[in-house]
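Lab notebook, page 48
Experiment: co-folding of the full assembly
Goal: obtain a model of how the components sit together before planning crosslinking
Operator: M.T.
Materials (sequences as entered):
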Amino acid sequence: MALAITGTGNGTIGNLSVTTETGNILSTESNVAPKVPAFQVSSTSSASLGISVVTKWPFNDISGNDFDTHSYFDTTNYRFTPQIAGYYWFNTIVQTGHSNNSASTVAFIELWFYKNGSAYSPQIFFPVNLSTHYFGATKSELIYLNGSTDYVEVYMKQGGSNRFILGFLSQFQGYLVRS
Amino acid sequence: MELVDKIKQIHSDITDDDFDSITGTIVLQNDGNGDYIHTWNHPTLAEPTQAQLDAIGE
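Observation: model returned without errors.
Model output:
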């Protein structure tokens, strides 16, 4: 929608014109929500997490409470590739467990957002006590994406232990904050 | 057998510290199609070949 405000100078009466398209003009009191891309995806299956391996998290499911407003999430390659440029807020919650109930070794897991195949920023470390059997980690980040080729993925690593860890019931969310 | 264990079997001097994300020199990765050696910057030991890794078996 093209919106033009014209005038002849300070103190004169100007003109407001709206051309080309029709739509709603939003006031500061408007309750019309912006139609920005937003998604929430999950991983439903138990995925093996190799020891000391930086592993892309298999977010492969959009069902139940999940959504993908613009169909920008690829559940085959587990990546979000929006076609609208801007700053996107991302959050992920990964939940893991292990198959050794008697384990008591303290270990840690690391979590990254990857942009275009590389770590976007340093990972966050989560110390875990394996005797608790289940544990989780979360990370949030604001990332600019160009609206065509840029994509974001979630990677995770188990470190400092020889325990076998599985991942399940994890979520990955994001939405456009501003252009 | 885990990839990390195969590497340790080929190079007995390799330890968990070599895979540390901050101080280590080796990065293993999985992009959805299996574990592989993404980065090998060990100062003295050579990166194992795929044939060496395959020879160890599962």
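Interpretation: The two ends of chain B are 5 Å apart (CA to CA).
Next step: discuss with group before ordering constructs.
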